[in-house]
């Protein structure tokens, strides 16, 4: 028989964080209580989490953490989003004797190491806080950039810019974002969106800066200058990011994950999306030049795509705090895939390519900034780092294969980009269906805020 509970929202610790899907009535059936970190607990057990759920929702430490995360993502994910600049340069200079699919393994390895390291880094954050990870991460990131400036052989680029750089990005990406989640709940998506905007700004600045520096000072010093910038900004990030919770031991793997159907659906959707999501960032420069765009202008196309991502990382997360995180991530993921299949595949001149770059940058940026708030929404505060890390570790494998698969299709189709575009668009669309499934599992009522 269905049990009826008279529950006040603040009695279960949800008043402190009401951004979850909550029913409008105070008297609800036990089967109607929406999913949240405390919804699976008894009222007594939920009350014990009240202290952890008392988020400050602001203050100097909280906003300094957001600022530090912005700087960290500017240097890390911003450069990672700019790999298309390196891919185009390598194809015309140091690695001109290698096919595009081979060169793209460097960028794919960046993504794989960055994503795969998330599981370990997330656990370290939950146990020891951000600084234990971020400080050595800064050293590794700068070392990898300097090593890239000295590289001359393909294997050296793979090790320096691929493996080592990807590890440094991971160590500076996960901790500050997880730290933000300990300071905010109602405004979590907004705060994370501001931090994620750093990657968009970096994605605008780095292609333009590197394109000019490659010509003015040469490849070696252009890369070294980016390394010095990373050293300064990441050092500031290490000094400003803080974690609100005390350090406690954390499990390497949470057995509840394999029983959490919503989390598993979120992972399944992310697997499909990550397979195709980064293909446009890798190949938009080469695609532009192959369609008659001046090579110098083609570098700016990537910057335009990343500029669209700035607004995508800001506006949808801000709206999601009012309308629901899952309610926003589903259409953003769907429209990312649709823009690839409807706009990119028909873009054959600079204006249409720029239209695609803006649209795709916006919607893909929105997905990137919303996936972490969605994970946090269905996780307890002390397992956010671990769960986010597990998600990114899993999607590291499709991310690894996306770029080379696109390059192989490009070669198989004798320079035609149609196969690559179809692969990218269909996988992102397929992933959006799983995200919709996860959202409906949380609350089948479409008008609910989830």
From TrEMBL:
UniProt keyword annotation of Cell membrane present: no
A GO term from the CC aspect: membrane
Cited Pfam families: MFS_1
Compartments where located: Membrane
InterPro entries listed in its UniProt record: MFS, MFS_dom, MFS_trans_sf, Proton-linked_MCT
A GO term, aspect molecular function: transmembrane transporter activity
Domain Major facilitator superfamily (MFS) profile span(s) in chain numbering: 262-450
Membrane topology: Multi-pass membrane protein
Protein name per UniProt: Major facilitator superfamily (MFS) profile domain-containing protein
Organism for this UniProt entry: Ceriporiopsis subvermispora (strain B) (White-rot fungus)
Upper taxonomic lineage: Eukaryota, Fungi, Dikarya, Basidiomycota, Agaricomycotina
């Amino acid at each position: 028989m269905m049990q009826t509970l008279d529950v006040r929202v603040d009695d279960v610790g949800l008043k402190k964080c009401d951004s979850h899907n909550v029913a409008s009535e105070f008297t609800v059936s036990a089967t109607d209580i929406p999913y949240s970190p405390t919804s699976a607990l008894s009222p007594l057990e939920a009350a014990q989490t009240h202290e952890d759920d008392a988020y400050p929702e602001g203050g100097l430490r909280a906003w300094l953490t957001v600022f530090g995360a912005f700087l960290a993502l500017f240097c890390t994910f911003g450069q990672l989003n700019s790999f298309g600049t390196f891919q185009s340069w390598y194809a015309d200079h140091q690695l001109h004797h290698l096919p595009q699919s081979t060169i793209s393994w460097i960028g794919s390895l960046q993504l794989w190491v960055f994503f795969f390291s998330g599981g370990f880094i997330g656990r370290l954050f939950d146990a020891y806080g951000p600084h234990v990870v971020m400080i050595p991460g800064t050293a590794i990131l700068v070392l990898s950039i300097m090593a890239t400036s000295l590289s001359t052989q393909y294997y050296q680029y793979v090790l320096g810019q691929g493996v080592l750089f990807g590890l440094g990005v991971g160590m500076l990406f996960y901790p500050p974002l997880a730290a933000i989640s300990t300071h905010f709940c109602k405004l979590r998506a907004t705060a994370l969106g501001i931090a994620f905007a750093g990657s968009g700004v970096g994605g605008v600045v780095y292609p333009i800066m590197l394109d000019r520096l490659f010509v003015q000072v040469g490849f070696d010093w252009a890369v070294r200058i980016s390394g010095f910038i990373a050293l300064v900004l990441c050092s500031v990030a290490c000094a400003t990011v803080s974690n609100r919770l005390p350090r406690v031991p954390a499990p390497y793997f949470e057995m509840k994950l394999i029983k959490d159907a919503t989390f598993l659906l979120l992972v399944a959707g992310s697997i499909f999306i990550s397979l195709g999501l980064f293909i446009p960032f890798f190949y938009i420069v080469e695609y532009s030049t192959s369609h008659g765009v001046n090579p110098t202008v083609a570098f700016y196309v990537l910057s335009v795509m990343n500029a669209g991502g700035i607004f995508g990382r800001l506006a949808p997360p801000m709206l999601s705090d009012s309308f629901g995180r899952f309610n926003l991530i589903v259409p953003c993921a769907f429209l990312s895939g649709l823009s690839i299949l409807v706009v990119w595949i028909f873009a054959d001149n600079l204006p249409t390519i720029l239209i695609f770059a803006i649209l795709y940058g916006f919607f893909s940026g929105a997905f990137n900034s919303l996936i972490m708030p969605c994970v946090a929404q269905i996780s307890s505060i002390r397992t956010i780092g671990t769960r986010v890390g597990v998600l990114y570790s899993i999607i590291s494998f499709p991310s690894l294969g996306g770029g080379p698969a696109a390059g192989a299709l490009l070669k198989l189709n004798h320079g035609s980009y149609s196969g690559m575009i179809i692969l990218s668009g269909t996988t992102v669309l397929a992933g959006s269906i799983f995200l919709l499934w996860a959202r409906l599992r949380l609350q089948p009522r479409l008008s609910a805020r989830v």
